[in-house]
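Database export, one record per block. Field names are fixed; values are copied verbatim from the stored entry.
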Amino acid sequence: MVRKITFNGLGDGCIGTVTLQTNVPPMLMSPEAQAGLETASVEIDDHLSSL
């Protein structure tokens, strides 16, 4: 699996991210795995917004 995360300055002090994943194993494409990824993304957003 390959994950590429690109950070983009939005010009207003905010940063946007784009995540691209390739060669994802089938077990990581289940609804449960996707929910875990969503939870992790929300936690990262919360942390970064507190900086």
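Remark 1: The radius of gyration is 13 Å.
Remark 2: The CA atoms of residues 6 and 18 lie 5 Å apart.
End of record.
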